[in-house]
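User: Predict the complex with coenzyme A.
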Amino acid sequence: MTPGIKQISKVDMALRSDCYHIVDQTRPGEAMHLYNNLREDVETRGHILFVFYGISAPLGFIKGQVSKIKNEAKVDYLFVDKKYQCTGIGTLLLKEYEKYCLQKGVNNILLYSAPTIQAYRFYSNNGYVMLNENRLMAKKFNLRSR
Ligand SMILES: CC(C)(COP(=O)(O)OP(=O)(O)OC[C@H]1O[C@@H](n2cnc3c(N)ncnc32)[C@H](O)[C@@H]1OP(=O)(O)O)[C@@H](O)C(=O)NCCC(=O)NCCS
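Assistant: Here is the predicted structure with coenzyme A placed in the model:
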């Protein structure tokens, strides 16, 4: 397996299981939901999935929805394996997703931050601004300056 980020359009059982275990470390309730929906989200609903592969297994992933019509993208899930957090993988995944959105002409990205200092600090460091008390955060790119 070549390490790095790949965009995934077919979600096999092994990947579903790996993503499940990454999420299960921090959010067990959501992990089951993700396990059941990831394949359909990507293969049927057109959600966007990028996975960061280590040498032998996925170490993190980001899943989102990009609407060119609304000029709006959402981040639904961004999770990094606990053992590899704070090593830059989350930032690489987020930047790859942002790049994808911009290539599609979408410059407005929204997400709900987890209720943790870790998540809030991570998104703030990456330029996201808190919009309301429900932890909705947003980042707007200037398309011309990039
Ligand atoms: C939030 C998350 C995606 C960040 O990914 P990451 O690969 O760990 O982050 P990076 O290494 O790219 O960036 C590190 C930055 O993230 C934040 N961060 C990561 N882990 C942290 C921790 N344990 N405590 C505080 N801040 C933390 C900090 O801002 C840190 O920057 P700093 O070291 O300069 O303060 C990852 O830690 C994670 O999966 N957390 C659990 C799930 C989660 O909360 N996901 C977001 C759901 S909306």
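The helical segments are 13-24, 28-43, 89-103, 117-125.
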